[in-house]
């Protein structure tokens, strides 16, 4: 009996421990679950996200303010769908990061504007979460254009890594400068209301301002004297890429070059005179524009969304036009002025950018320093550290020795040359006015852009178009020949041949 | 509603898991048997739809039906429905012209004891709205095909189950409209059947299963045909306006029918797409008009369709008197072939591996008419409350036909991507029963598109 008693006591004791343990476990699980759930509420998100703009813009967006009355919470977009480890991992990561930022950073020091841009948004919005709720991409009321776009998405999402927010960036946070529709009308200049009536006269090789009659486009042209220079960079230059050599002695004839990258005001003047609402077969457009005897070009179709990215127009560089569109701009300008405008050759571009210098930049300073310190470079170049992730007006920077602004940074600029990695190897030493490789698939772009690091905005740094990739979101077939859908920091400047009889 | 959706989704995912387990289990068992030359399914069972084809639809609540389009197909389809199920009440009729409507109405009254009152008979191009708004559960849409997308969208908006006679789109814009409406219909738990009746024809359904189970191996190509004599045409009568004439003579006009490659031959193209489970990526075609009397269509097409992985389908269709007739499909696989003429599957040596047993089917079933069986399937889905969609697949087949047609009209190779995004819209801007701008209705000449 005693034996049984003892066992019973032991059992009871064990049972008690078991029950206590179980109770404690349940309490812990409940508390843990409570905090896990609580940490996913909008309130707890906003506790660390101490910028009320995020909450305000959310409340003005479709995800809060819509006819169905559905409210989409922070974590429904900013975390992967619930129910797997990816959700937990992302939650832990973003939670720790946000708490850390809240404790160590000042609200004013954070560039909230650039966090609204697609590049950042794709890192904190999960496409799988979009699709978790949006099970039907063809809801009642969808437009025919919408169906085209969503059919394209269905066919290509995986292949091209398409994102919902590439076109619906304002779904979760309202942005008054964002547009999910085709642009209507022609933007008018806010800074210059003068409509020019006469052409500029060019009688000597000096700077002049091209005024296009009937428009308010005034293009300041800088006389760039001809000369010799060394194209490319020495192998010892920091951050140098292989395609910047071998260096060659090149001679360039004199030309005029626009002082700044072609501005929105100038581009809209072209657009206003040449745009066509309906889509015409690109082959037909190209054939028309290629004819030597035309007196008017066929220009761009209306862009989708705000091509200025909501950053402002005016004197800021025009963006996202294709290389072809830039060429047609030159053709238009030539027809309207009787002078010969074109894109610069790569040699002309680098010669102009260097302005007689042969270092990494046309100003003094160490590259390593520019990677942290904007004091010197910031006076000349709009790049990663001073751009706030967008283009800036030319008035922000000082010119180079030739009087040209923003040759480096702000936006990449088209050249007329086809790109080849070994283009300089194909050059002869002492060659005059080289035109680049005879054929190719991508064009040269030069000068870096606002999000580039210091090493990418050197005078010798080369790059090229990525045609298909820059159009991957465009759902139209054939895709636009006028506007790129997936690149922002691309623009151009024009050169004008020196008219005959002028020295 | 929300609750139901979640339950349904949960249920689906669970049944999918069960299905996968089943497939894995079965194949494990099969391989355990050590039989080497076993068939490799093209798709796992459960990933493709196989209709049940009982003689008659299940009984259930009375269903009120409307008919929009009282021509030959409409008058047939409504009778097919009445033969397919009991408890069907014909509530409303619509047509552009009163004479067509009267024929159907009289027939229904005399032979089927279905009396449609005067105030439920609607005439005109907007009759479809009135029919759909007449308190019906289901609608048969059998007007000329150019109107189908608009009618289907309205029916779906009103929560009405649709039977869509093929073709259901004659241009890319119509195709896109159908795709979107089909998804919306699914969201509303609606049942949509299209008039591609081979999907409900016993020998085809059985062959489809054999092919999916891998009996002919991987599909490598095919040939499909609809060659026949002239179809029919209506000479213009005194007093007929442009609009009335074209609609009465609709199988001869591009914008109304989509041309005969879309209007008729889509059946055969659709069979190949059904078996393969993919849409073409490219089409190169010839076409011409030799002897058609009215309208602006061709009377023959020959199309080379290219699919992913270099698979080709040759499609030909002709409507010319005095030429050889041939309607059917042939599909070639790595291990054998199937054809619809004798409903046989042969291996590469010509041995018959399977043949549809017509006698057995006749012994087992009383109803073997696919035009009736498609309505049986439609009513069964409605009465069981199971959403069903044939519109998306049929729209894809229609766009394939459109691709072939445009390739022939232009003489250019046409891609699926270009076609599915094309702004081509066949609906005339000035559509009316009255004078219309006829200058655009011309016979296409290849090579002159640009």
What does it look like?
The complex is a heterodimer of chains A (503) and B (450). Chain A has two domains: 49-166, no CATH class; 208-496, Alpha-Beta Complex (paralog of FGE (formylglycine-generating enzyme)). Helices cover 33% and strands 10% of the residues of chain A. Chain A is built from 15 helices and twelve strands. In chain A, the strands form three sheets. A five-stranded antiparallel sheet of chain A has the order 1-2-5-12-6. The N and C termini of chain A lie far apart (125 Å). Helix content of chain B is 39%, strand content 19%. Chain B has helices at residues 2-32, 72-84, 98-112, 127-132, 148-157, 172-187, 202-212, 242-248, 254-257, 260-263, 266-276, 358-364, 370-384, 391-410, 416-421; strands at 63-68, 88-95, 121-123, 138-141, 161-164, 191-194, 219-228, 282-288, 300-306, 312-319, 326-333, 336-339, 344-347, 352-355, 388-389, 414-415. In chain B, α2 runs parallel beside α3, α2 (72-84) crosses α13 (370-384) and α11 (266-276) crosses α14 (391-410). Classes of the chains: A alpha+beta (503), B alpha/beta (450). At the A-B interface, α9 of A face α6 and α15 of B.
Alpha carbon gap, first and last residue of chain A: 125 Å
Biggest sheet of chain B: strands side by side, in what order?
Answer: 14-13-12-11-7-10-9-8-16
Q: Enumerate how many helices of chain A there are, as a single number.
A: 15
Radius of gyration of chain B: 22 Å
Overall body shape of chain A: elongated
* Extended strand count of chain B: 16
Relative helix content of chain B: 25-40%
Number of domains as seen in the coordinates of chain B: 2
Task: Count structural domains of chain A.
Answer: 2
Chain oligomer state: heterodimer
Could you list the spans of chain A in which at least 5 consecutive residues all have pLDDT below 50?
none
Q: Would you tell me which CATH topology of the largest domain in chain A applies?
A: paralog of FGE (formylglycine-generating enzyme)
Order of helices and strands of chain A: HHHHHHHHHEEEEEHHHEHHEEEEHEE
Q: Please state the structural category of chain A.
A: alpha+beta
Based on the structure given, which CATH architecture of the largest domain in chain A is correct?
Alpha-Beta Complex
Gross geometry of chain B: globular
Structural class of chain B: alpha/beta
Rg of chain A over CA atoms, rounded to whole Å, is: 29 Å
Which architecture name of the largest domain in chain B does CATH use?
A: 2-Layer Sandwich
């Amino acid at each position: 009996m005693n034996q049984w008693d003892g066992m019973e006591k032991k059992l009871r004791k064990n049972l008690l421990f078991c029950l206590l343990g179980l109770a404690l476990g349940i309490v812990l699980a409940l508390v843990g679950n409570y905090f896990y759930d609580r940490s996913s509420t909008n309130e707890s998100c906003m506790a660390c996200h101490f910028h009320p703009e995020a909450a305000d813009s959310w409340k003005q967006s479709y995800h809060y303010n819509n006819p169905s009355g559905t409210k989409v919470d922070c974590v429904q977009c900013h975390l992967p769908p619930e129910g797997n480890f990816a959700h937990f991992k992302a939650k832990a990561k973003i939670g720790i990061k946000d708490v850390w930022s809240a404790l160590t950073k000042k609200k004013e020091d954070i560039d909230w504007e650039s966090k609204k841009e697609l590049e950042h948004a794709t890192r904190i919005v999960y496409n799988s979460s979009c699709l978790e709720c949006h099970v039907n991409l063809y809801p009642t009321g969808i437009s025919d254009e919408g169906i085209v776009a969503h059919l394209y998405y269905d066919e290509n999402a995986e292949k091209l890594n398409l994102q919902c927010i590439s076109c619906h960036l304002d779904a979760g946070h309202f942005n008054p400068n964002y547009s999910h529709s085709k642009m209507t009308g022609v933007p008018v200049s806010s800074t210059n209301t003068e409509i020019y009536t006469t052409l500029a006269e060019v009688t000597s090789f000096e700077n002049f301002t091209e005024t296009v009659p009937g428009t308010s486009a005034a293009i300041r042209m800088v006389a760039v004297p001809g000369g010799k220079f060394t194209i490319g960079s020495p192998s010892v230059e920091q951050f140098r890429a292989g395609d910047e050599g071998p260096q060659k002695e090149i001679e360039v004839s004199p030309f005029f070059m626009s002082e700044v990258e072609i501005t929105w005001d100038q581009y809209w003047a072209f657009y206003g005179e040449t745009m066509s609402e309906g889509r015409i077969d690109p082959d037909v457009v190209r054939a028309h524009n290629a004819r030597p005897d035309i007196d008017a070009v066929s220009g761009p179709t209306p862009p989708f969304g705000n091509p200025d990215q909501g950053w402002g127009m005016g004197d800021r560089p025009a963006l996202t036009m294709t290389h072809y569109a830039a060429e047609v701009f030159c053709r238009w300008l030539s027809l309207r002025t009787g002078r010969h405008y074109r894109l610069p050759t790569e040699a002309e571009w680098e010669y102009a950018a260097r302005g007689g210098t042969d270092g990494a930049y046309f100003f003094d300073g160490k590259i390593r320093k520019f990677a942290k310190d904007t004091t010197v470079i910031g006076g000349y170049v709009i790049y990663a550290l001073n751009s706030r992730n967008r283009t800036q007006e030319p008035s922000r920077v000082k010119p180079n020795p030739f009087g040209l602004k923003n040759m480096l940074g702000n936006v990449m600029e088209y050249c007329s040359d086809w790109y080849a990695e070994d283009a300089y190897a194909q050059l002869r030493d002492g060659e005059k006015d080289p035109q680049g490789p005879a054929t190719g698939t991508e064009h040269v772009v030069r000068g870096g852009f606002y999000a580039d690091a210091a090493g990418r905005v050197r005078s010798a740094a080369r790059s090229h178009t990525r045609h298909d990739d820059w159009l991957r979101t465009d759902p139209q077939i054939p895709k636009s020949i006028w506007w790129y859908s997936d690149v922002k920091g691309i623009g151009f400047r024009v050169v004008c041949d020196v008219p005959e009889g002028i020295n | 509603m929300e609750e139901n959706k979640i339950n349904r989704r949960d249920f689906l995912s669970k049944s999918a898991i069960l299905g996968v387990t089943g497939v894995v289990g079965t194949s494990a068992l099969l391989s355990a048997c050590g039989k080497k030359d076993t068939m490799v399914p093209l798709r796992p069972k459960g990933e493709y739809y196989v209709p049940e084809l009982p003689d008659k639809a299940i009984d259930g609540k009375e269903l009120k039906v409307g008919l929009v389009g009282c021509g030959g197909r409409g008058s047939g389809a409504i009778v097919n429905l009445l033969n397919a199920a009991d408890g069907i009440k014909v509530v409303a009729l619509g047509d552009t012209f009163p004479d067509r409507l009267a024929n159907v109405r009289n027939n229904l009254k005399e032979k089927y004891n279905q009396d449609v009152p005067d105030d439920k008979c609607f005439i005109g191009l907007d009759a479809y709205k009135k029919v759909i708004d007449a308190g019906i559960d289901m609608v048969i849409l059998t007007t000329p095909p150019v109107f189908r997308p608009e009618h289907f969208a309205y029916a779906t908006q009103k929560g009405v189950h649709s039977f869509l006679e093929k073709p259901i789109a004659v241009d890319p814009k119509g195709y896109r409209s159908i795709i979107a409406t089909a998804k919306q219909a699914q969201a509303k738990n609606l049942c949509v059947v299209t008039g591609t009746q081979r999907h409900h024809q016993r020998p085809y359904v059985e062959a489809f299963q054999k092919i999916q189970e891998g009996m002919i191996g991987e599909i490598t190509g095919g040939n499909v045909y609809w060659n026949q004599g002239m179809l029919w045409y209506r000479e213009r009568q005194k007093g007929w306006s442009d609009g009335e004439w074209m609609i009465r003579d609709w199988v001869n006009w591009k914008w109304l029918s989509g041309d005969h490659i879309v209007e008729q031959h889509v059946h055969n193209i659709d069979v190949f797409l059904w078996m393969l489970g993919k849409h073409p990526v490219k089409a190169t075609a010839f076409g011409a008009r030799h002897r058609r009397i009215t309208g602006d269509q061709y009377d023959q097409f020959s199309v080379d369709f290219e699919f992913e992985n270099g698979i080709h389908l040759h499609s030909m269709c002709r409507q010319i008197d005095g030429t050889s007739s041939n309607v059917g499909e042939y599909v070639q696989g790595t291990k054998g072939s199937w054809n619809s003429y004798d409903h046989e599957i042969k291996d590469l040596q010509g041995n018959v591996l399977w043949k549809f047993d017509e006698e057995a089917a006749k012994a087992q079933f009383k109803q073997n008419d696919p035009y009736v069986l498609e309505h049986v399937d439609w009513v069964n889905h409605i009465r069981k409350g199971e959403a069903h969609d044939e519109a998306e697949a049929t729209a894809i087949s229609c766009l394939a036909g459109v691709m072939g047609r445009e390739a022939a009209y232009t003489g250019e190779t046409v891609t699926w991507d270009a076609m599915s995004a094309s702004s081509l819209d066949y609906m005339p801007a000035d559509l009316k029963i009255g004078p219309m701008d006829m200058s655009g209705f011309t016979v296409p000449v290849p090579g002159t598109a640009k």
